[in-house]
């Protein structure tokens, strides 16, 4: 078991930029050996002192804030975020916060978790806030190139881009009274994600390679219906008189006000909806089901629904800037990586069927991520341009 005094001292020296490479190596080992209470105490101490850690330059400010907020949620005693591996979850949080490098916790059957560290440069950077907004008249706006402020208007609403890369719809002071329904479409490419606040106040996080079609104004509509392909996380504004409906290729989700995640990529063979708060009703052409918090409903291409209990943190990890996986086969895992880094994955005939457990920060460059995955010792990745070759 790691010495709490040694760990605290090394951690303090690291934050003061006084650690040698050997000190950092020892600090990493101590994180891996420390008990959960020790790790919890260290993280909590830093959260209570916001000046103890500062971002390394302005480019890291938003990343730092998101990580800090996620940590505060994880350390609430009434809700342990990572149920399966509480120690690993806290240890990973410490490492993400202090920025030592790139880490993953891999667990082979009948073996112990271990920490791998890599700082090698990479050819391909992670995704970022990128999206295209198409208005009802066909005008397309590349949001990344827009400055903050009003970037357009549609359906009686001004469309505003905020400094933190988010768009929202606000009233135009009653200047527009038309009852014509104006539909907008927000699309993220591979390597992009974006945040959106709909006209009713519903918050949406759109994952990479996804598309959301929605009314610019819900004023004259009996229901708030939107269409999704890809993946999105919703925090729906409550309105008992106007149900909120998400339509995918094979599943319709109906809610009044709740938090949930929908994974509906065309190439994944069905939709998965995971509920975090409230209740939802999922339906296909064949059947329907009522879903409770902590459950996930999966629909296949035949319209059959399957309801199962799930750890919701895995479903929303992407929204919290992580890849998280439990016994995940290599091909589904690499689909997520391909979308985020905008690469093509090519498998050799002898590519092994390896399964992974763990978490990786989405801020890492792709070569660091691939090197970490290789630490299983059973798989190899070769990066050439924007292609990733998977071999034994």
UniProtKB/TrEMBL annotation:
InterPro entries: FecR, FecR_C, Ferrdict_sens_TM. Residues 185-281 form the FecR protein domain. It holds the Pfam family FecR_C. The chain crosses the membrane at residues 84-106. Residues 322-390 form the Protein FecR C-terminal domain. Keywords: Membrane, Transmembrane, Transmembrane helix. PANTHER family: PERIPLASMIC SIGNAL SENSOR AND SIGMA FACTOR ACTIVATOR FECR-RELATED (PTHR30273), PROTEIN FECR (PTHR30273:SF2). This is FecR family protein. It comes from Mucilaginibacter litoreus.
């Amino acid at each position: 078991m790691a010495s709490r005094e040694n760990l605290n001292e090394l951690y303090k020296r690291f934050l003061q930029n006084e650690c040698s490479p050997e000190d950092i190596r020892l600090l990493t080992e101590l994180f891996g050996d420390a008990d959960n209470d020790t790790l919890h105490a260290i993280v909590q101490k830093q959260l209570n002192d916001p000046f103890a850690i500062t971002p390394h330059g302005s480019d890291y400010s938003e990343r730092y804030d998101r990580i800090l907020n996620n940590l505060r949620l994880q350390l609430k005693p009434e809700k342990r975020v990572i149920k399966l591996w509480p120690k690993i979850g806290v240890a990973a949080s410490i490492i993400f916060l202090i920025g030592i490098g790139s880490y993953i916790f891999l667990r082979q059957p009948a073996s112990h978790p271990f920490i791998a560290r890599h700082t090698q440069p990479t050819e391909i950077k992670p995704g970022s806030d990128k999206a295209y907004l198409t208005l009802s008249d066909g005008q397309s706006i590349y949001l990344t190139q827009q400055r903050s402020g009003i970037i357009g208007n549609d359906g009686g609403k001004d469309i505003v881009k905020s400094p933190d890369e988010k768009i929202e719809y606000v009233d135009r002071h009653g200047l527009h009274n038309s009852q014509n329904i104006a539909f907008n479409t927000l699309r993220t490419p591979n390597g992009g994600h974006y945040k959106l606040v709909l006209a009713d106040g519903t918050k949406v996080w759109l994952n990479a390679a996804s598309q959301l079609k929605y009314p610019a104004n819900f004023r004259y509509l009996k229901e708030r219906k939107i269409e999704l392909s890809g993946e999105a996380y919703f925090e729906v504004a409550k309105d008992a008189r106007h149900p909120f409906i998400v339509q995918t290729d094979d599943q319709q989700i109906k809610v009044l006000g709740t938090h949930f995640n929908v994974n509906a990529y065309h190439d994944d063979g069905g939709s998965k909806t995971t509920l975090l708060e409230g209740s939802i009703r999922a339906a296909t052409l064949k059947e329907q089901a009522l879903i409770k918090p902590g459950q996930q409903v999966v629909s296949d291409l035949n319209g059959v629904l399957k309801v199962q209990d799930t750890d919701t943190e895995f479903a929303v990890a992407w929204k919290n800037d992580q890849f998280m996986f439990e016994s995940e086969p290599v091909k589904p895992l690499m689909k997520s990586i391909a979308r985020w880094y905008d690469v093509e994955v090519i498998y050799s005939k002898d590519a092994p069927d390896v399964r992974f457990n763990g978490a990786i920060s989405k801020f890492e460059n792709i070569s660091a991520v691939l090197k970490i995955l290789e630490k299983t010792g059973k798989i190899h990745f070769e990066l050439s341009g924007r292609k990733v070759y998977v071999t034994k």
